[in-house]
């Protein structure tokens, strides 16, 4: 069956002497694998459209249970800046890697597609990359069924005097319950406000937010620890981001 869809390239791999296999995320079909024959060749009409992060119109032939075969494609947004800037590339790669590895074949939704599309654009527009990443991580937690409790104490249900975040227990803790997790992360008012906001916030409405360094440090600890405990995937792109942070690149 010939399919015509819009999509974002999540991953692009060389295959054989001149071909590429791309992992394509689409609103209608979810995540699909597509063979682009001859795309490795410099003069190929598919060379540009199969690059990572490319958002375009794709036409491919696909039968059920089989990999698609690319017929034609047109670029809507090339996202050159995301590939040319080291920091942008690393953070955009993390969004793409999460999407690619956490979705099964033909799994996804129009909403998640729009969140990814907006996230890539937000990074390219110079919005705070860490906030973009954390917001998208929260979408991934929701997809996986591990959305943390952030609007009340995960232990007793209290909505006031929230002081800590417990990745192990699955959410925030009030001051009276914080003893239940001795390694719970203390969060200030700014970090708590964002943790509450992320689950219901649409990436398409993200503005040029200004977040204090202390708040961002708390958020980073909360989100990375939660990801490691509940998702348990070793992310290549996040490792690279952490290396850049470690050496202040």
TrEMBL record:
Keywords: DNA damage, DNA recombination, DNA repair. One of its GO terms (biological process) is DNA recombination. The keyword DNA damage applies. Residues 4-78 form the DNA replication/recombination mediator RecO N-terminal domain. The keyword Ribosomal protein does not apply. Coiled coil: none annotated. This is DNA repair protein RecO. It comes from Paenibacillus silvestris. The gene is recO.
């Amino acid at each position: 069956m010939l399919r015509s869809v819009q999509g974002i390239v999540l991953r692009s791999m060389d295959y054989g002497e001149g071909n590429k296999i791309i992992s394509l995320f689409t609103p209608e079909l979810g995540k699909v694998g597509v063979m682009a024959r001859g795309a490795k060749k410099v003069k190929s009409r598919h060379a540009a459209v199969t690059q990572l992060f490319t958002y375009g119109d794709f036409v491919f032939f696909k039968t059920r249970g089989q990999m698609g075969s690319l017929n034609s494609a047109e670029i809507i947004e090339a996202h050159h800046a995301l590939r040319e800037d080291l920091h942008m590339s690393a953070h955009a790669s993390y969004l793409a890697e999460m999407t690619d590895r956490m979705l099964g074949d033909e799994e996804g939704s129009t909403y998640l597609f729009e969140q990814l599309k907006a996230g890539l654009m937000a990074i390219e527009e110079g919005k705070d990359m860490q906030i973009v990443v954390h917001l998208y991580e929260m979408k991934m937690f929701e997809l996986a069924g591990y959305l943390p409790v952030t609007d009340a104490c995960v232990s007793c249900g209290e909505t006031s005097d929230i002081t800590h975040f417990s990745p192990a227990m699955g959410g925030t803790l009030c001051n009276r319950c914080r003893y239940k997790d001795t390694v719970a992360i203390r969060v200030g008012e700014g970090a708590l406000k964002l943790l509450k906001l992320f689950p219901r916030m649409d990436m398409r409405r993200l503005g040029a937010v200004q977040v204090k360094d202390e708040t961002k440090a708390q958020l980073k600890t909360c989100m990375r620890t939660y990801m490691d405990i509940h998702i348990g995937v070793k992310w290549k792109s996040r490792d690279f981001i952490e290396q850049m942070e470690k050496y202040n690149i």
